[in-house]
Amino acid sequence: MNARTLGQPLDRVDGPLKVSGRARYAAEHPADDLLHGSVICSVIARGRITAIDASAALALPGVKLVLSHLNRPPMAQDDESYEDDDAADGSPFRPLFNERIRYSGQPVALVVADTLELARHAGSLVRISYEQQPHATDLREALSAAHAAPAELPKPRGDADGVIAGAPVRLELEYELPCEYHHPMEPHASTVIYQADGSLLVHDKTQGPQNSQRYLAEVLKLEPDRVRIKSSFVGGAFGSGLRPQYQLPLAAMAALKLQQSVRVTLTRQQMFTFGYRPRAVQHLQLGADENGKLQGLVHEVIAQTSRFEDFTEHVAEWSGMLYHCDHVRLAYRLAPLDVYTPLDMRAPGAATGVYALESAMDELAWAAGVDPVQLRLTNYAETNQNEGKPYSSKELRACYQQGADAFGWSKRSPQPRSMREGDQLIGYGMATGVWEAMQMPASARASFSADGRLIVASATCDIGPGTATVMTQIAADVLGLEPSQVEFRLGDSSLPQAPLQGGSFTVSSVGSAVREACLALAEKLCEAARQWPEAPFSDGAALRFSAGRVQQGEDASRAVELSALLARHGSLEAEVQAQPGKQRERYASASHSAVFVEVQVDEALGTVRVTRVVSAIAAGRVINPKTARSQILGGVVWGIGMALHEEAMIDHDLGRCMNHNLADYHVPVHADIGAIEVIFVEENDSIINPLGSKGVGEIGIVGVAAAVANAVYHATGKRIRQLPITLDKLL
C-alpha cells in the first residue's frame, strides 16, 4: 500500500451535494400521493389510556387515519422481535402496543393526513383520557432503590478500601451529571414508500440501515426482502440513530394500513421523548502517598434507567485502566424510573466516567501539591490493568508533552485566583481522555464499471464524520487510483453487511473490509490478465494492479490496461468480510488524549467563557486529517457544552422535561467558543488493524468537561461538582 492518499486532507466527496442542497435526507424524498403523519404523545408519566375520541379529527376533509393501539396492524407479541443491535437488557418499548403508559412523551397515536399542517391540527382535536398512576422520575430520590447493573465490571483488585483508609492523602468526592439529549440538526424522520407489490422502501434517519430493516421486518411480521431501508445522508446522530426510533414503525404501520406512502417527522420537542445520556451520581474515593502516587481507588456509579430496560454503559471501567493502581474497586448500579430508556450518546460512559475521574485527579493534584500534568505522569499506566494486557500502542506521554507545549502550560501560576486580566479571573485546567479502539466484522464489495470507475459498497452509513470520503481514500490507495476514480456506495440495507456506525469503529471495521475487497479485486484482475494469451508476461511472474493496469513487477512495458481487461471479461468484482485479527486478542487498544483549557470567569457576574483549548490526540493512523480535525473540534465544542450549558430540566411532579426546545435547552453557539487547536500525535500501530487506525469520533469529547471544570477551579478557587457549571453555582 502506498501513502499517496492515506493521511492526506481530502475534501469531502459528498460536500458539493450537501452544500448545494442536492443531498436528500430522510424527510426529503418524494413519493406519489405521499401522506404525512403527526405523532401525539402522552401527557402523563405512568398509567393507562382509558379512551380515545378521534371523531373531530376524522371529520376534517383530508384526514385519512388516526392510528392507535385500538386499530393498528398486527405486531409481534414477543420481546425478542423488538430487540435490535443496540438493545439493552429487558423488554424493549413497543410503540402503540397497548393502553399502558410507561413515560411522559410516549407516542400514543398517529394522525395521518394529506398535509403535515392538517395532520398537526387534527392531532390537536384528538381527545385522550387517562387513568394516572403515581410515578417517579427523580434519580436522587431513587438512589436507595438502585440495583446492580447487568454489566461485566472488572473484579476488584487488592484491598482498595483498606489501603485508602491508611493512605497519607485521602479524598472522598461526589459528582453529578444531568440528563443530556441528542440534538442533531436533522430530526428523526422516516419516509415509507409503499410499492406496487406491497413491499416497503424506507428512507430512515438511522445509524444502521440493516438494523432498522431487521427490526421493522420482525415487529410487523414482514418477510425481510419486503423491506429495504436507505439512509443515503444523515444529518448528524451522535448515537440517537443506533436504535430504531418510534417514528419508523409508526410510519410503516400507517403505510401498510392505508396501502399508501407515509412520512413521519418528529418535532424538535419530540426529540426529547426518546434516548438521552442518563443522569448519574458518581462517588469516588482516592488514596495516595505524599507525592500523589495512587495507592487505592474506588469508583461507584448510580445512573438512571427505565423500568422496562436496564441501560448500561462503561462508566467506571476507565478508573481501573487509565492510571496505574494496584488496589481498585468499581461498582455500577441502576435506578429504574418512569422514563424512557437512555441511549448511547457520543463517547457513552466515557464522557460521564472520565469527567468524574479527571476532576478527582485534579483535586488529588491540589491536595498533594503536585502539578496536574506531573500527577498524571506519576500515575502513568504502561498496561491496561483491567485486562492484564499491554497496549497495542500508547502515545499518551507525547500527548501531555505536545499539548502542554502548544498551550503554554508552563506559564501557569499554580495558586487558584492568582491569574487575572482586569475583572476577569483566568484559569488553566487539563484532563486526560481515553476511548477503547474497537473493530467489528464488516463486509464490502469492490468492482469496476465498464468505464473503469471503481465502485465500492457497504451498508454502513455516514452520520457526518466523512465516512464516504475516507472509504474512497482507502480504496484509491489500495489500487493506486485517484480518489476521483472511486465511488463509495453506502446507506442501503441491501448492500454488504456492516455494523452500526458508532463507537469510533467504522474506519477500522468497514475500512478494513474495503481494503480487503480491493486487494481481492486486484488479485482477480491479475488472474484474468495472467490467463490472457496475448498478455506480455513471463511465466510465473509476479503481477500487480496499480494505476489502472496490471503489470509485471516494476516493468511498465509488460502491462495490460484495465480497459482491455474489462472489454474482454466484463465487470469483475470481489466481496469479502473482514474480521478482527487474532493478534489483537493479546493486547489492549485505546485512543488517548490530553486536553488543555483556558477560561475567563467574570469576578462580579460569575459568567464563564472558554477562551482557548488545545487537544492533543493519539489515535493511530489518521486517514484524513481534515475530517478528523472536524470531529475533534465538534467533540471539544460538545464538551464545553457539557461543562457549561447542557441540562435537561425535569419537572418531577409531571415527570416531564420542561426545556424541550433549543431556546431553553442550552447548547454552545459561535459566541461561546474561542480558539481550538487540534494536534494529532504520531502513533504507529501495526497490531490493531492493517490500516493502523483507531478512530476519532468519540475521543474528542472525553475529558473536555473535566478540563473546563478544573480550569474554573483554578480561576476561582471554587470547585463545582455538579454539571453544568452555571453562574448561580459560582456566585
Automatic annotation (TrEMBL):
Domain named Aldehyde oxidase/xanthine dehydrogenase a/b hammerhead: residues: 20-134
SUPFAM superfamilies (UniProt xref): CO dehydrogenase molybdoprotein N-domain-like, Molybdenum cofactor-binding domain
Gene3D superfamilies hit by this protein: Aldehyde oxidase/xanthine dehydrogenase, a/b hammerhead, Aldehyde oxidase/xanthine dehydrogenase, molybdopterin binding domain
Signal peptide: none
Protein name from the UniProt record: Xanthine dehydrogenase, molybdenum binding subunit apoprotein
Top-level taxon in the UniProt lineage: Bacteria
InterPro entries: Ald_Oxase/Xan_DH_a/b, Ald_Oxase/Xan_DH_a/b_sf, Ald_Oxase/xanthine_DH-like, AldOxase/xan_DH_MoCoBD1, AldOxase/xan_DH_MoCoBD2, AldOxase/xan_DH_Mopterin-bd_sf
Coiled-coil residues: none
